[in-house]
């Protein structure tokens, strides 16, 4: 009896062992050259769930015209950049990836992206979009959408725009005092990291950009603009607005959005991606320029989304054909706008989209903006920058000393 | 030898499992082994075609190993252990060896591939489009297995050339409706499909614009347009240097995984090299890292020790309470108590992060009537919150374990102690607890090791924050070593540094290994009680 059970167990163990080996081999031969033997070519592209539906049409028409299949692999947006950098060198990365332009710096630093010559097509796109895709004098991606933040105003609560941040806070508090709203002003802040991205437009009006730009328009990592005299002024005003109830470190992006859609605030500093839900909630909104605090113009960050080709793409020619000659078309860019709601980078598509006054207004404000720096040093800036702004907003530190300390810390990190 | 002995030996031999295998057993064994071998042979061919020799060697060794183990008559234990050992090799030993390897390299941002990849990337980057040069429409032609570019300039002039033959004007080309030259007599025009078949060759074609190579050459990316490029960085293979053709600067392999000029300017990307003990040195020598490293190590020990103590204390207390025979509704309470254990730590972490939110959290808003307590953003409160949530997550396990252990201690022991006049506390201290520890102590050690690396709770609740104010790194008051390693490796600050992160993990491994070894030695002393 005992012997019998032992035998069964031993056979079971062998079964496990064999399935293990099967598994191990299965994964190792997956990377095999399936596509070269079967004749038809397959491209892979990493996209996030939000953009995949819009790309399906472009992929289908590419398949029809050129008999090349484009496999859309849905990746988590947060980890896509780093996965791309790790996987491309091993040869297992995709042929193409969709992402914002500020990934380019890291891609180039790691040699994982191929330059993309737009040629005469560059003229068909908004200049700012092409410029954003350009890094150290070379273009690396095909832009498809431009986005930036602006001040969204609930016209039912406030019908006239305000110019400066002080006016905005005063007007907002007026509405709150009148009992018509709960918050004078909303902006999504991460309770742990703050949100320098949204507040950047206001900051630049003090003459303190994150990095200075050289004549060619490239950000210079050696010239930190955060330390300009205006920086401290901005920090002091942050504390003042926080005292006035306009900035609240516990209001995250989601909380802000919900509150605004409920009509609890006249102002919301946000981007076009939140507009569809506002309209669904039945709000009447107007798009105002970023309010200023200092004497200079407010230049919000522009984010440009685009398509990049891997430097180790297995089907580089087909990938170039798809990106350069299919995704650059009006049809493709129209479709991407329709599903994503982000203003198109192609001029012709943008003009069509701009028949909507809200898209047009965001676009107009975007023209005053500057591309978010793509240089790898930017990674070193976000954490300190955000945490310090957050501490100032919370009133935990003295802005006059905390801001210069943060600048010093960023400087030492950038210097390596 | 007596006859009895002989008979016993015979019986022993007869009862060897190999000899008593039934027909079905043998068949199943043959089929399974055959499957393994068939797949292994297929994998060997595939791997050989891809020239992945290391993986191939491992596959062959494993397959031969499995065959030997299961075809042998003897060695029954090996037949049981083989699957487990294979798993151990793949998921533990390989990962550890690889981490060890990475710890001695400079792997990370800017150094994430091989030298040849870096050379290729630098060379592509060095290709610069000639300023103000036109965009050419392109047809790719083929003649006797060599590729030719037929290009149409914007002004309508048509020219033909190949990698060997500079561009030359042709006037007998056939032009399509849009004015693009598509074919020339004597050459065959490639269709898009044919282009795809020869992608790599076509992308490698560079047609010189004139006899002078420094005028640039035509290249294509998509097979339908071509641009003039000039290379401003040339690679000299013999000397292993890059030369900037406009400034004349020479970049040499500086021995640190990148090409550097004499002024110290480096070309990106670099590549992965072996850096010896540099990463370990950096972990202890960089002031920014060192200062926070000490604080983090201290907190890690405090967190792990307190977690074990609290969890064990509460678990044991509850187990004793619910072990009282006269209590009613024990089953219900026990189920309720085990519930936190059933939730994934990830989920609970997020839920608690919401509950503890300063402004909108349930605890401040409802339980404390709108208080403004910074549970997660004040350094000491954050440490408290992390410990508290970890206690909530961890006590059910200890409760279960202690309940089991308590029930296995015979009641007579307790009774005997009481008869001898010991107080209940004394009976517990002197009799129950030591007996309990015999079975629970090893679990306490593993709980300690687990909490030493308790990534989930920390990352889900506070992400290691709030940040230390006197350091520039993104390291905070509740950071454990493991979350710090994660931040170094996956760069929420200055970029990813796999080398340093691996070195730190090895340090953690050594620390935990030593502690566990010491403690396990102590627990053997406990077993003497038995």
Automatic annotation (TrEMBL), chain A:
Pfam family, one: SBP_bac_8
MF GO annotations: carbohydrate transmembrane transporter activity; maltose binding
This protein's UniProt keywords: Signal, Sugar transport, Transport
Signal sequence range: 1-23
Keyword Magnesium tagged: no
Gene Ontology terms: cellular component: ATP-binding cassette (ABC) transporter complex, substrate-binding subunit-containing
UniProt-listed GO biological process terms: maltodextrin transmembrane transport; maltose transport
UniProt key word Zinc: no
Family: Belongs to the bacterial solute-binding protein 1 family.
Name the UniProt record assigns to this protein: Maltose ABC transporter substrate-binding protein
Source organism: Mumia zhuanghuii
From TrEMBL, chain B:
Residue ranges the record marks as coiled coil: none
Keyword Thylakoid found: no
GO cellular component: maltose transport complex
Localisation: Cell membrane
Pfam family, one: BPD_transp_1
One GO-annotated biological process of the protein: maltodextrin transmembrane transport
Regions crossing the membrane: 21-47, 53-71, 80-104, 296-320, 332-355, 384-409, 430-452, 498-520
Record membrane topology: Multi-pass membrane protein
Keywords recorded for this protein, A-Z: Cell membrane, Membrane, Sugar transport, Transmembrane, Transmembrane helix, Transport
GO molecular function, one term: ABC-type maltose transporter activity
Keyword Cytoplasm belongs to the record: no
Major localisation: membrane
Domain of life: Bacteria
Occurrences of domain ABC transmembrane type-1 (ranges): 297-519
Function per UniProt: Part of the ABC transporter complex MalEFGK involved in maltose/maltodextrin import. Probably responsible for the translocation of the substrate across the membrane.
PANTHER family for the chain: MALTOSE/MALTODEXTRIN TRANSPORT SYSTEM PERMEASE PROTEIN MALF (PTHR47314), MALTOSE_MALTODEXTRIN TRANSPORT SYSTEM PERMEASE PROTEIN MALF (PTHR47314:SF1)
Family (UniProt): Belongs to the binding-protein-dependent transport system permease family. MalFG subfamily.
Protein name: Maltose/maltodextrin transport system permease protein
Species this chain originates from: Mumia zhuanghuii
């Amino acid at each position: 009896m005992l012997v019998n059970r032992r035998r069964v167990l031993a056979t079971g163990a062998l079964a496990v062992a064999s399935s293990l080996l099967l598994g191990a081999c299965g994964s190792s031969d997956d990377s095999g050259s399936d596509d070269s033997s079967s004749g038809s070519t397959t491209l892979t592209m990493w996209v996030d769930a939000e953009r995949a539906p819009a790309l399906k049409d472009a992929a289908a028409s590419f398949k029809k015209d050129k008999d090349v299949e484009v496999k859309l692999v849905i990746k988590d947006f947060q980890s896509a950049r780093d996965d791309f950098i790790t996987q491309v060198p091993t040869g297992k990365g995709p042929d193409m990836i969709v992402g914002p332009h500020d990934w380019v710096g890291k891609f180039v630093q790691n040699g994982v992206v191929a330059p993309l010559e737009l040629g005469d097509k560059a003229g068909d796109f908004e200049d700012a979009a092409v410029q954003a895709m350009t890094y150290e004098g070379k273009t690396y991606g095909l832009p498809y959408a431009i986005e930036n933040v602006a001040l969204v105003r609930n016209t039912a609560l406030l019908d006239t725009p305000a110019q400066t941040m002080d006016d905005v806070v005063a007007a907002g508090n007026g509405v709150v005092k009148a009992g018509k709203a709960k918050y004078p002003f909303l902006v999504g802040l991460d309770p742990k990291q703050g949100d320098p991205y949204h507040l950047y437009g206001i900051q630049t009006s003090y003459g303190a950009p994150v990095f200075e730009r050289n004549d060619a328009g490239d950000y210079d990592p050696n010239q930190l603009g955060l330390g300009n005299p205006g920086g401290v002024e901005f920090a002091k005003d942050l504390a003042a607005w926080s005292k006035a109830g306009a900035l609240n470190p516990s209001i995250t992006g989601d909380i802000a959005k919900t509150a605004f859609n409920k009509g609890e605030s006249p102002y919301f500093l946000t981007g076009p991606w939140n507009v569809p839900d506002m309209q669904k909630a039945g709000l009447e909104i107007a798009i105002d320029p970023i309010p200023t605090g200092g004497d200079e113009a407010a230049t919000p960050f522009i984010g440009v989304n685009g398509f990049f080709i891997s430097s180790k793409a297995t089907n580089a020619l087909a990938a170039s054909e798809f990106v350069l000659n299919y995704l650059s078309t009006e049809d493709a860019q129209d479709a991407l706008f329709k599903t994503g709601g982000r203003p198109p980078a192609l001029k012709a598509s943008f003009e069509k989209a701009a028949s909507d006054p809200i898209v047009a207004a965001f676009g107009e404000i975007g023209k005053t903006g500057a591309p978010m720096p793509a240089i790898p040093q930017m990674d070193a800036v976000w954490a300190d920058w955000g945490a310090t702004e957050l501490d100032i907003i919370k009133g935990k530190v003295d802005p006059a000393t905390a801001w210069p300390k943060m600048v010093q810390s960023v400087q030492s990190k950038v210097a390596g | 030898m007596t006859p009895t002995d002989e008979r016993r030996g015979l019986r022993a031999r007869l009862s060897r499992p190999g000899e008593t295998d039934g027909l079905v057993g043998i068949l199943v064994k043959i089929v399974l082994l055959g499957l393994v071998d068939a797949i292994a042979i297929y994998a060997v061919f595939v791997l050989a075609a891809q020239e992945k020799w290391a993986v191939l060697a491992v596959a062959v060794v494993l397959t031969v190993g499995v065959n030997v183990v299961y075809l042998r008559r003897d060695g029954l234990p090996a037949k049981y252990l083989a699957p487990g050992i294979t798993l151990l090799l793949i998921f533990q030993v390989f990962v550890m060896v690889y981490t060890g390897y990475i710890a001695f390299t400079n792997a990370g941002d800017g150094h994430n591939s091989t030298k040849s990849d870096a050379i290729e990337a630098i060379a592509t980057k060095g290709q610069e489009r000639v300023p103000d040069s036109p965009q050419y429409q392109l047809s790719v032609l083929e003649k006797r297995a060599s590729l030719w570019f037929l290009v149409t300039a914007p002004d309508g002039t048509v020219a033909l050339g190949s990698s060997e033959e500079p561009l030359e004007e042709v006037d007998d080309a056939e032009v399509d409706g849009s004015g693009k030259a598509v074919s020339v007599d004597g050459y065959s025009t490639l269709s898009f499909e044919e282009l795809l078949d020869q992608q790599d060759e076509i992308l490698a074609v560079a047609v010189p614009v004139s006899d002078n190579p420094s005028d640039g050459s035509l290249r294509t990316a998509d097979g339908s347009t071509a641009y003039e490029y000039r290379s401003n960085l040339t690679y000299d293979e013999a000397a292993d240097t890059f030369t900037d053709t406009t400034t004349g600067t020479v970049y040499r392999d500086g021995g640190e995984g990148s090409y550097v000029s004499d002024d110290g300017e480096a070309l990106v990307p670099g590549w992965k090299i072996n850096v010896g003990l540099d990463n370990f040195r950096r972990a202890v020598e960089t002031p920014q890292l060192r200062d926070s490293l000490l604080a983090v190590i201290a907190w890690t020990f405090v967190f792990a020790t307190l977690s074990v103590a609290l969890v064990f204390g509460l678990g044991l207390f509850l187990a004793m309470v619910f072990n009282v025979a006269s209590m009613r509704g024990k089953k219900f309470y026990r189920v309720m108590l085990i519930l936190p254990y059933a939730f994934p730590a990830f989920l609970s972490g997020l839920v608690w992060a919401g509950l503890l939110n300063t402004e909108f959290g349930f605890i401040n808003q409802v339980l404390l009537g709108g208080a403004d307590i910074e549970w997660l953003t004040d350094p000491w409160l954050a440490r408290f919150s992390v410990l508290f949530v970890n206690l909530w997550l961890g006590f059910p396990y200890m409760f279960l374990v202690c309940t089991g252990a308590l029930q296995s201690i015979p009641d007579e022991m307790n009774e005997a102690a009481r008869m001898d006049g010991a107080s209940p506390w004394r009976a517990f201290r002197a009799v129950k607890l030591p007996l309990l520890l015999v079975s629970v102590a090893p679990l306490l050690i593993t709980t300690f090791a687990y909490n030493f690396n308790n990534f989930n709770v920390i990352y889900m609740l506070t992400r290691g924050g709030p940040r230390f104010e006197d350091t520039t790194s993104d390291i905070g008051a509740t950071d454990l070593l493991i979350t710090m390693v994660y931040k170094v490796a996956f760069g929420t600050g200055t970029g990813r540094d796999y080398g340093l992160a691996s070195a730190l993990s090895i340090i953690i491994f050594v620390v935990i290994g030593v502690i566990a070894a010491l403690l396990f030695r102590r627990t053997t002393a406990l077993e003497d009680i038995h």
